[in-house]
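re: ur question from earlier - yeah i can do the single chain one, its not a big deal. heres the input i used so u can compare w yours
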Amino acid sequence: MVAPRKLRLTSREDIVVAVPYLLGFHPQDSLVCVVLDKQRIRFVARLDLPQPSEVHQLSAPAAQTAAMISRYGSAAIIAGYGPADRVEPAAEVFTAALLAAAVDVLEVLRVDDGSYWCLCGDTGCADGVGYDPSASILPAEAVYLGIAPLPDRAALKQLITPVTGPERDRMRAASDTALRRLTDMLSDGGISIDGGQPSPPEHVVRAGIAAVRQAYESAARGETLSDDDVAWLTAVLLVPQVRDHAWTTCDGSDEQRRLWIDVTRRAIPETTAAPACLLAITAYLAGDGALANVAVDRSLRADPDYHLAQLLGHALQAGLPPHLWQAATTGTPND
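and the output i got, formated as tokens:
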């Protein structure tokens, strides 16, 4: 993922304390790589930690990740989260892959149960060094910047768990009404909702863009959309021109992040792909690659052929910084 905002790391303890804030969640059974270029954190990559008997299977993904890292960074810090028999062989494979890709490895650490160990030959922390996140200023700095890690990756998925019970029933009824309304509007121009003419009537696009703008304005005021508003918004996002307006006006703000989390949770399965993808773009622009990946997965589960989600997924896998994505897709860099 891309590193969110700015955190200054000056020691090994800073690295260990900062990783959950950079990832967006507390890693477990993970190999984390903090990628730097000219002493700036460019992004953070994470690989699942293999079992000792399966460490050979890490060679290919490690080489692919290292090649990606070499395109955007010149140095890396590795932190493995888990027991020694799993972290040490995996870290060795990943270190070799990074060095082969001409990426300097500055630190190799193992983190487990409130301590960290140095795996790069420094005897000062070879036996383990306890650390106390509450004694560091990094958490306070992160909170000030609006960064708060979740307990684990599963908690990220729970953020966009679909609504259930009566709320789901209300959204189904509202969405059925909204989709009939959209179908009628499209039929006026001789277009069907499931694929007719490539260009919908202008009045449909205008109505859809107005719904997106109203949603963004409501989010900026801290308001929650009604069931009918969410249903209509998710319906008009089925129109490609409306969806394109929505994603090119994503700004990575916390307000838009809350909006698309809420809409993704409340969307019915048939209309989930677009809001989930818009959440992914919003999170990506904010540097929250962990949430962006989870949202891309949700979008592709709803529609495996959703092209925008596929495109964003490739950008995330390649470690493409968000300002390059924004420049390439909208011509307006995200400074």
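Residues 95 and 138 are 27 Å apart (CA to CA). not sure if urs matches, ping me
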